[in-house]
Amino acid sequence: MILPVGELWVCRTFNQALPYVTDEKLRADVKGFVHQEAHHAAAHKVAQDYLRHYDYEIDEFIGSLDTIAKQLNTAPLGLTLSKNLEYRWLTIRVGIAAAVEHFTTMLGTWCLDDQPWQNKTADEMMSDLMTWHLAEEVEHRSVAFDLYMHLCGEENKIFAYLQRQIIMTAVAPGFTFAIYQCFKKLTQQDTQPKSFHRYGLLRSLAQTVIENDRSKQVPSFFSMMLSLRHWLKPSYHPFYERRYFLKLCRLSTTLYWLKH
Fold first, then answer.
1. What is the 3-state secondary structure (H, E, C) of 68-113?
2. Model pTM?
3. In sequence order, which residues have a C-beta less than 8 Å from that of residue 122 and are 6 or more positions away?
4. At residue 95, what are phi and psi to the nearest 5 degrees?
5. Minimum mean pLDDT among 23-27, 61-65, 121-125, 175-179: which range?
6. pLDDT, tens digit, for every residue of 196-237?
7. At what angle do helices 143-152 and 157-188 cross, to 10 degrees?
8. Which of 6, 233, 35 is nearest to 241 (CA)?
9. The CA-based dihedral angle spanning residues 20, 84, 142, 169, taken in that order and rounded to the nearest 10 degrees
């Protein structure tokens, strides 16, 4: 439900960054990334129509996401920036995309390794759509980060490192809250006699750990947050993260049951 807005925002941002890309391989990777994200957005809009078909009201929530995305375009909060600040703001927006890709790579790894929905009770259409999408997230996991580092410049690695840590302090809670709000909106309209719609943020996050251990159909919030220790490393690069994420998914379950 929340994906098309973010995917189209990334497409616009990366297209604006293309004129500054001097490496031909990276340029080709960025173009391929934009093509994939545009394809994802189109597919997920079909999924939105699927929810509407079953009488889910989602347009108000999507409208609020559109408003946020507009504030993160070339003129943040409606401000006109100088050429220098405009470029700096572009690196920040690409950094936001790289931070989100850190989480989507982890979700993709979890999906491919645990196969949470295949041959289970999930709706087949939704299961296939999400599995396809998350597989492509793993495939292009390095592009946003490589573009961010390229725009910051080889000589500005320390600045690039510090800036991406600051970016993550906003992205991690923002990404978490967006998913929670999406969950809340859908469960409030669910006809199943369950009380998930009454769950607050903290209880919902704790429930992901319990549900991950019980059914393996929900990713653990704990493992998502624990993965940030890799983001904190100056040597971090998404290309090497897949094997780390798998270990974290297993570790999160072990730690939970040791505490309980």
1. HHHHCCCCHHHCCCCHHHHHHHHHHHHHHHHHHHHHHHHHHHHHHH
2. 0.82
3. 116, 217
4. -65, -35
5. 121-125
6. 667 788 877 777 777 766 666 677 778 788 889 889 999 999
7. 140
8. 233
9. -170
